[in-house]
Design brief:
This protein is mostly helical. It is about 75% helix and about 0% strand. α2 packs antiparallel against α3. The longest helix has 24 residues.
Length: about 110
C-alpha cells in the first residue's frame, strides 16, 4: 500500500526492517550471522533474486493492471511445487497437480477477459 510516486523507497524500508529483525533474532538466540564459505554465493543469489522480484512486483503494481498482477503473483506456490519437482525430484500429489492446473487455467481465463 505504498503511496503513488514513492518509487522504490518502500522496498528500502522493508529491507531495513527485515535486516533489523534478523539481527535482533540472532542477538537474542546468540547465533552468528557469518555464513559458511560454500553458502555465500547461494545467499547472494537468493538476495538478488528476492530484490528483483520485489522491484518487478512494485513496478507492475504501479504500471500494470492490478487485477492481473495480483493473480500472477499469487501463483508463487505453484512455482515452489514445480521447483521441488525439478530440483529435488519430489513427486507431486494429485491434489497439487490439480491445484496448479486450476491456477494456470484461471490465469489464462483472466488474460483472455
Amino acid at each position: 500500500m505504498a503511496p503513488d510516486g514513492s518509487g522504490l523507497w518502500p522496498l528500502v524500508g522493508a529491507r531495513m526492517s527485515s535486516i533489523t529483525m534478523v539481527v535482533l533474532l540472532a542477538v537474542a538466540t546468540r547465533r552468528t550471522l557469518r555464513p559458511g564459505a560454500r553458502s555465500l554465493h547461494i545467499i547472494v543469489a537468493a538476495g538478488v533474486l528476492d530484490m528483483a522480484a520485489n522491484v518487478l512486483y512494485l513496478l507492475a503494481q504501479e504500471r500494470g493492471l492490478l487485477s492481473l498482477v495480483a493473480v500472477l503473483v499469487s501463483l508463487y506456490p505453484a512455482s515452489t511445487l514445480l521447483l521441488a519437482r525439478q530440483v529435488l525430484g519430489e513427486r507431486l500429489q494429485a491434489i497439487q497437480m490439480a491445484g496448479v492446473a486450476c491456477a494456470l487455467g484461471a490465469v489464462a481465463l483472466i488474460a483472455v477477459a
